[in-house]
Amino acid sequence: MSAPVGRRERKKAATRQALADTALNLFLEHGYDHVTIRDIADAVDVSTTTLLKYFPTKEALVFDEDTEQETALVAAVRDRPEGQSIPQALCAHIKRIRIGAGDSDARFAAFSRLVADTPALSEYAHRMWMRHQDALAHAIAEAVGSRPDDYRCAALAHFALETSAFAHRTDNAEYAVDTAFTLLEHGWDAA
After folding, report:
1. Cβ proximity of 61 and 55 under 8 Å
2. Long-range contacts of residues 119-128, Cβ cutoff 8 Å, at least 24 apart
3. Whole-angstrom Cα distance, residue 73 to residue 147?
4. b/e per residue, 129-162, with b = 16+ CB within 10 A?
5. Please, which pLDDT band fits residue 56 given cuts at 50, 70 and 90?
6. Contact assessment for residue 98 and residue 104, using Cβ atoms and an 8 Å cutoff
7. Cβ-proximal residues to 128 (8 Å cutoff; 6+ apart), any chain
8. How far apart are CA 150 and CA 92, in angstroms?
9. Measured in whole angstroms, how far is the alpha carbon of residue 34 from the centre of its chain?
10. What interhelical angle do 173-186 and 86-94 show, nearest 10?
11. CA dist list (Å): 33 to 22, 59, 129
């Protein structure tokens, strides 16, 4: 059982969420490049100094689920059904959260377009996503009973994460992810 959250922590969490929600709304309405940190702070009625305590960069306002993403990636490996390979589990997870999420959620689709159409956000999103590589490599190594520094596990983690960016540069993201993971699981067969 977790400790009760105090009033101060609840206020901080509420402020953080208000800043993230307001920023996203303003970015979607006016475009990322047309909204300033001051615009967001003013809309939430906090100082820019306060905003920067919660989010050190403008890009960070858009990506507020870094910890949750890493936890979900590790869980995709650790909690996969018996008989499902690690590449199959990662393929399904990446298709669900990075490719297919926009299919049923108009707001997520708008968010995805915002990121794709804004070079600063695309680059930041890629850097944030790739930061999960070490945690994912450790989870893979643990799942297969290998050493934490096994290069095969690190390579699988790296290329599994990289499939998301690869897929978004194609005209059929789901097929691109399936193709990449088939290659990761079965290797190259040029015949």
Report:
1. yes
2. 120/32, 120/58, 120/59, 121/32, 121/59, 121/62, 124/57, 124/59, 124/60, 124/62, 124/63, 125/62, 125/63, 126/165, 128/63, 128/66
3. 19
4. bbebbeebbbbbbeeeeeeeebeebbebbebbbe
5. very high
6. no
7. 63, 66
8. 24
9. 24
10. 170
11. 15, 11, 22
Segment 89-101, tens digit of pLDDT: 999 999 988 776 5
Residue identified by tokens 């990075």 is 98
Distances (CA, A) of 117 to 28, 31, 43: 11, 10, 24
Calculate the average pLDDT of the chain: 90
> Which residue from 54, 73, 185, 53 is spatially nearest to 131, judged by alpha carbons?
73
Taking alpha carbons only, the member of 71, 74, 68 closest to residue 142 is 74
Q: Which residues contact 122 (CB under 8 A, 6 or more apart)?
A: 115, 116
SS3 state of residue 74:
helix
